[in-house]
Amino acid sequence: MPNSTPDIIFYNGQITTLDRANPTATAVAIKDGKFLAVASDQEVMTLVGDSTRVVDLKRRNVLPGLYDNHTHVVRGGLNYNMELRWDGVRSLADAMDMLKRQVAVTPAPQWVRVVGGFTEHQFVEKRLPTIAEINAIAPDTPVFLMHLYDRALLNGAALRAVGYTKKTSEPPGGQITRDANGNPTGLLLAKPNAMVLYSTLAKGPQLPFDYQVNSTRHFMRELNRLGVTGVIDAGGGFQNYPEDYEVIQKLSDEGQITVRLAYNLFTQKPKEEKEDFLKWTSSVKYKQGDDYFRHNGAGEMLVYSAADFEDFRVERLNMPPEMEGELEEVVRVLAENKWPWRLHATYDETITRALDVFEKVNQDIPLDGINWFFDHAETISEKSIDRIAALGGGIAVQHRMAYQGEYFVERYGARAAEATPPVKRMLEKGVKVSAGTDATRVASYNPWVSLSWMITGKTVGGLGLYPRDNLLDRETALRMWTEKVAWFSNEEGKRGRIEAGQFADFIVPSKDFFSVPEDEISFLTSDLTVVGGRVVYGDNDFAPLDDNPLPPAMPDWSPRRTFKGYGAWGEPEGAGKNSLAPLHAQAVATCGCVSACGLHGHDHAQAWASPVPTSDLKGFFGVLGCSCWAV
User: Fold this and answer.
1) How much is the pTM?
2) Rounded to an integer, what distance in angstroms lies between the CA atom of residue 355 and that of residue 349?
């Protein structure tokens, strides 16, 4: 045991450390934001000093804090308080009721925005609303509804607000659908890319600076509620450096960051990308910042000619012939300055061509020690995986297939989807690989959805995509969200495990991750989230420990005040009633029958769905003593 006196000790827990030399413990001692000791209660409690705070974990299960390898927290935080989030909402009827109620409280000239993070397949109705349905709810308030990165629905008021008329020409990078008279219908399609969605959304009102600060704090609070203690921010379209980083910098300066954030710089200027990176490599030092907010390199956009599009509803486009030349210019600048980079790449065709460039640069400027990687890589081949490993690179996968799997299967077939992406094979080959979300638009920010997807192979709509040989066990999936992410931010040995010397980041899940039924994994949250030894979120038994009080969400009409976040959890008996537990659990909880079945309790739906060797379902179960047939 060390000689130092801890600042705080957490004891009486059931701790999964992910440290192979010390896989379990019951107590941790923390000093100066790092784990000082990880051992038994008896051993750790000997370190208690006069100033040491002691916290009882109440025999709860403890995991390392979750660390998202690819998300957009900087951009998402600026807008979070303005957005009506349909993430996790299971019914279109509930979602439309939320929209109607939000329209009623949103003042002119503000918009109501539903900006991604959901798919039509998560709804029991399996569809999006029609524009006529939106217009009926909101005849005068602009409504902008973006579905993943494939389309946006604008009501009549939104079309008027953005100025789209019969005379509006087709925008580059998108399509404005029109009626027989040439008038815009309100449907925008991302063909061949999402630029029309970005540019239209950018026309809406923005929050003032102080509200953006408040909004970012509330977004981080939501991530803490879900057990996220760190992220790597991948930049984003219309996210300019340094202007759009002033909010997060202010929070850093004031010690109010509760999600560790490493950021990559994303070029904003097609055909001027090299100039962006020449400027940034001369003015921004790699890794500048601290353990809570620091620079992490370049990307995910390096050059626009190398950016393939992730909408599986449209045909894959070939990258233009100038891709290699433009990409090489930028990669040489980055390699010369020892800046790591990440590159958005959905398809193996793009990855193959990019690897040709990286291998060429490597002949002149060795890439050893530069932690570069591809993002997404849904259709990557084994050959490309081997080439990445040989060059010392990595692959950051995200759960986009959990939201677009149905579309992929529709276009390419179920067989092609079985290893999209081939996560298990990546791990077997030893390439650096980790997991994340790509939130907040093309997927939700909820890490448990990603973990569920890797473990069950199912989309949020319930479609099974993967055979058993492409699924992960729970410990491997957890490592993908913790220790394996550390390489991608060049922090191996500093984070990702509950181990002496590492960042003191950990969570207490709402239920035991390792024993909860598979269909409940995506519904987990955190009852206790600790970052650097500080309790940044506490709920239920741990609510009194919460050291991160926030002022109310601003503005006062913000959807956060009513619905909060994922699954409308702010209204567990209202908008969130059908979204905060698996469907079978809801059926059990709301069953109105007089008495429970002797075999199945009140879970009659599960009994009726069970396979039985007879066509007489009621008679068969009746013979076995099941009374579900009588309900």
Assistant:
1) 0.93
2) 10
Task: Give residue 192's pLDDT band: very low, low, confident or very high (50, 70, 90).
Answer: confident
Q: What are phi and psi of 421, to 5 degrees?
A: -90, 165
pLDDT for 454-509, tens place per residue? 999 999 999 999 999 999 999 999 999 999 999 999 999 999 999 999 999 999 99
**Sign of the torsion formed by the C-alpha atoms of 66, 70, 71 and 74:** positive
What distances in angstroms separate CA 54 from CA 25, 212, 223, one per listed residue? 16, 36, 25
- Residue 589: CA atoms inside 13 Å, Cβ hemisphere, count? 10
Six-digit token pair at 384? Answer: 């490309």
Tokens of residue 151, six digits = 């389309």
For range 120-145, the mean pLDDT: 98
> Which whole number is the average pLDDT over 306-322?
93
Distance between CA atoms of 400 and 440, rounded to whole angstroms?
A: 11
Per the listing, tokens 């390699």 go with 335
Q: Decide: 4 and 25 in contact? Cβ < 8 Å.
A: no
DSSP E strand stretches across 102-206: 112-115, 143-147, 151-154, 175-178, 184-189
Name every residue whose Cβ is closer than 8 Å to that of residue 359 and which is 6 or more positions away in sequence: 387, 391
Helical H segments across 84-225, by residue range: 92-105, 131-137, 156-162, 195-201, 209-225
> How far is residue 523 CA from its own chain's centroid?
14
- pLDDT digit string, tens, across residues 361-377: 999 999 999 999 999 99
Q: Which are the contacts of 305, defined by CB distance < 8 A and separation ≥ 6? A: 319, 320, 322, 323, 326, 327
The domains located in the chain, with CATH, are: 71-205 (3.10.310.70), 212-492 (3.20.20.140), 587-630 (no CATH)
Report the C-alpha gap between 536 and 257 in whole angstroms. Answer: 10
Give the mean model confidence (pLDDT) for residues 105-126: 98
Checking DSSP bridges between strand 342-345 and strand 34-39, what pairing results, if any? unpaired
CB within 8 A of 175, min separation 6: which ones?
188, 189, 191, 196
Q: How many residues does the chain have?
A: 631
Go through 530-550 and write b for each residue having 16 or more CB atoms within 10 A of its CB, e for each that does not. bbbbbbbbbbeebeeebebee
- Residue 53 has what pLDDT? 98
Q: What are the tens digits of pLDDT across the range 585-621? A: 555 444 444 445 544 454 444 443 444 443 344 444 4
In the beta sheet, which residues pair with residue 71?
233, 439
Each residue's pLDDT tens digit, 237-272: 878 899 999 999 999 999 999 999 999 999 998 999
Residue 588's pLDDT is 44
d(CA 122, CA 86): 10
Find residue 531's DSSP bridge partners.
534
Q: Between residues 597 and 513, which one has the greater pLDDT?
A: 513
Residue 395 has pLDDT above 50, yes or no: yes
